[in-house]
């Protein structure tokens, strides 16, 4: 590899260095650099004074006889300080048929970098052969040892007591209506923590916050450039996203992220990160070279066996990360452990998690090392781990994802509850199974209700407002001819497609949203709601807003006041769940009976103990939860028929029933504040069409 010499402003002294740990690790005397490449023949380390310097101040050529231990290339740069920027050039074979894509002219970021800068970055130049020195990304040396956590630690809230709020860091505060000082940043989110605390959620699940490319223009639609907004295409697994930082140019990535985590923890809110280890942003054979491709392509990716210039695409995103090769698997585990140890993260949700179960031949493994090493890592022992238990190549593992404590996004829950609230008949048995924690999916595998993350909506699909406002997707704004996004949404528009001024339709939509909220928060398992669903955030029927970094994808804070009555319902229903432990059990029902003769759960229809399991026309379901240890009993009546029906109420020895929730009532009668419930004197209750009623014993 030819050495390119630049006149240095500062000549740093070079020493041998150490192979471990990987990355750029500063100490009081300098910085140790280490990078893995099995097939490289030469590596250069380039040092830059500033994030936007077009040329390096020093280029260090690593001597394989001195600066290489097995396949770890390393060097110690004496006197180098945090805040310095750097990149690599890696030489080797360019035989693409053999799976190699080395290009000695391409600048590469460090896979273990704690921060990067894209000031000069031009994606197209990384896709083409040749030198891209002046348009490349730069990694930055960051000292993670100096930060005042003020005693902060991960909160370790029990999974059974968790209520997840999925949110997009940028979209949460980017709207001018947010009125925060730094919109769309970690700092901006801090200003809105009081809102989250009032709502009552116990954890935020952040859509990807690892570095991704928000500069690439995918297409223009009506004069608006569309970019990668969601961030599900990771560039760097140890680095917070530059776009969410106020001062990334000076290497403030980690500090700003820590400030947010600490502030959320002080409010009692955990932080779960949505992580994307199934593929990277380097894409397919035509994609850019900025990291793994140029460092050791055949190690980090699944390549087509007969023609290794191409990538297996189990993800639908161009490539697939070789998760169960020892080196990528090491990176995955060390990345997760870093975010927990150094940034106090409470949990992770794994996008297309089933990819992590595939072996190097692509076949699912019985004991995939990546998944089991995450499961058994002592550093991650108290960390929440959640899988999206499927991938784009058809592997669907709901109910049997490998491991013991992995929770799963329960897609079956979403679909069954959507069908029920929409008004489909003959599915009350499936609905009962979902409400009771999906034992039919999990119990036989030794799992628990806490293995099921229940949700009605997620970032991917309709918002809750749109679920009750649209029969079809309306993705025209994405510029793909409305072909993107799923077609079967199990939605119902309540009689009018889209926005309407019809008060009757709007009232019905409010009621349907309250029905979904009540069922979700009355179900065993771990509930997840989506940013803005509590105030009817709309994407105007777009069910795939991955590229909508605009008002369509942002939280409109005007809705908080406009739909304050709905916010109140969500807030009090969340509080109701947290106050009643029989709504968030850590174990399945056993049939045990309390001192009043009520079982831990009993199922009914309109008549007591007569659920319509085999009735093809059934659209109603009721259940009673017997309270133990001085807790109240709870009786729930669900009427998804369109007309009023009379439900029998069980007698409860020595106590009376009080109405806590009736979604057919107008606010504030739809849900009572604690201690203000309404006495029910009859042994029956008339439940309005398409509504939910909840009683408690006192």
Automatic annotation (TrEMBL):
Organism: Chroococcidiopsis thermalis (strain PCC 7203)
Ranges where the Glycosyl hydrolase family 13 catalytic domain occurs: 166-577
One GO term of the biological process aspect: glycogen catabolic process
Protein name, as recorded: Isoamylase
CDD domains xref list: AmyAc_Glg_debranch, E_set_GDE_Isoamylase_N
Keyword vocabulary terms for this entry: Glycosidase, Hydrolase, Transit peptide
MF-aspect GO terms: amylo-alpha-1,6-glucosidase activity
Protein's UniProt keywords contain Electron transport: no
Record-linked InterPro entries: GH (IPR017853), GH13_cat_dom (IPR006047), GlgX_Isoamylase_N_E_set (IPR044505), Glyco_hydro_13_N (IPR004193), Glyco_hydro_b (IPR013780), Glycogen_debranch_GlgX (IPR011837), Ig-like_fold (IPR013783), Ig_E-set (IPR014756)
Recorded superkingdom: Bacteria
UniProt family annotation: Belongs to the glycosyl hydrolase 13 family.
One Pfam family in the UniProt entry: CBM_48
């Amino acid at each position: 590899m030819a050495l390119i010499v630049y006149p240095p402003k500062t000549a740093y002294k070079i020493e041998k260095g150490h192979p471990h740990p990987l990355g750029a690790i500063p100490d009081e005397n300098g910085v140790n650099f280490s990078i893995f490449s099995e097939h490289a023949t030469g590596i250069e380390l380039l040092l830059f004074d500033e994030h936007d310097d077009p040329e390096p101040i020093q280029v260090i050529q690593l001597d394989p006889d001195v600066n290489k231990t097995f396949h770890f290339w390393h060097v110690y740069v004496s006197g180098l300080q945090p805040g310095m920027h750097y990149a690599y050039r890696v030489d080797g074979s360019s035989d693409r048929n053999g799976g190699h894509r080395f290009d000695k002219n391409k600048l590469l970021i460090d896979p273990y970098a704690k921060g990067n800068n894209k000031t000069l970055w031009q994606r197209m130049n990384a896709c083409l052969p040749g030198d891209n020195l002046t348009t490349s990304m730069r990694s930055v040396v960051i000292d993670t040892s100096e930060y005042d956590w003020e005693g902060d630690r991960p909160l370790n809230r029990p999974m059974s007591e968790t209520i997840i709020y999925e949110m997009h860091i940028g979209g949460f505060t980017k709207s001018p209506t947010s009125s925060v000082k730094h919109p769309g940043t970690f700092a901006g989110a801090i200003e809105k923590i009081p809102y989250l605390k009032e709502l009552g959620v116990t954890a935020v699940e952040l859509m990807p916050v690892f570095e991704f490319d928000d500069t690439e223009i995918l297409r223009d639609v009506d004069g608006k450039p569309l970019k990668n907004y969601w961030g599900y295409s990771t560039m760097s697994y140890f680095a917070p996203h530059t776009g969410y930082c106020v001062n990334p140019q000076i290497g403030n990535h980690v500090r700003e992220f820590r400030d947010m985590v600490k502030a959320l923890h002080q409010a009692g809110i955990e932080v779960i990160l949505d992580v994307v280890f199934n593929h990277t942003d380097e894409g397919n054979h035509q994609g850019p070279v900025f990291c793994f491709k140029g460092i050791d392509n055949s190690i980090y990716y699944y390549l087509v066996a007969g023609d290794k210039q191409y990538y297996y695409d189990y993800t639908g995103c161009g490539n697939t990360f070789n998760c169960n090769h020892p080196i990528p698997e090491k990176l995955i585990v060390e990345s997760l452990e870093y975010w927990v140890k150094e940034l106090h993260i409470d949990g992770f949700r794994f996008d297309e998690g089933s990819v992590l179960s595939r072996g190097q031949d692509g076949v699912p493994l019985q004991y995939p090392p990546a998944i089991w090493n995450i499961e058994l890592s002592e550093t991650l022992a108290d960390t929440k781990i959640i899988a999206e238990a499927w991938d784009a190549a058809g592997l669907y593992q709901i109910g049997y994802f490998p491991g013991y404590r992995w929770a799963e996004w329960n897609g079956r829950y979403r679909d069954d509850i959507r069908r029920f609230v929409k008004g489909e008949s003959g599915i009350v048995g499936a609905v009962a199974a979902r409400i009771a924690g999906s034992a039919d999916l999990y119990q036989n595998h030794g799992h628990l209700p806490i293995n099921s993350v229940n949700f009605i909506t997620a970032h991917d699909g309709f918002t809750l407002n749109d679920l009750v406002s649209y029969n079809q997707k309306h993705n025209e704004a994405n510029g793909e001819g409305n072909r993107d996004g799923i077609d079967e949404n199990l939605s119902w528009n309540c009689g009018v497609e889209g926005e309407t001024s019809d008060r009757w339709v709007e009232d019905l939509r409010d009621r349907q949203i309250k029905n979904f909220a009540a069922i979700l928060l009355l179900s065993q398992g771990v509930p997840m709601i989506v940013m803005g669903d509590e105030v009817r955030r709309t994407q105007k029927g777009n069910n795939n807003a991955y590229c909508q970094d605009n008002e369509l994808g942002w939280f409109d804070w005007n809705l908080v006041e406009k739909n304050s009555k709905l916010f109140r319902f969500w807030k009090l229903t969340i509080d109701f769940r947290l106050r009643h432990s029989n709504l968030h059990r850590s174990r399945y029902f056993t049939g045990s009976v309390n001192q009043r003769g009520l079982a831990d759960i009993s199922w009914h229809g309109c008549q007591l103990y007569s659920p319509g399991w085999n009735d093809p026309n059934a659209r109603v379901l009721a259940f009673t939860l017997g309270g133990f240890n001085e807790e109240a009993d709870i009786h729930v009546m669900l009427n998804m028929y369109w007309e009023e029906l009379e439900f029998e109420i069980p007698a409860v020895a020595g106590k009376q029933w009080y109405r806590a929730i009736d979604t057919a009532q107008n606010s504030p009668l739809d849900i009572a504040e604690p201690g203000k419930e309404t006495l029910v004197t009859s042994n029956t209750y008339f439940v309005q069409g398409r509504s939910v009623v909840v009683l408690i014993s006192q």
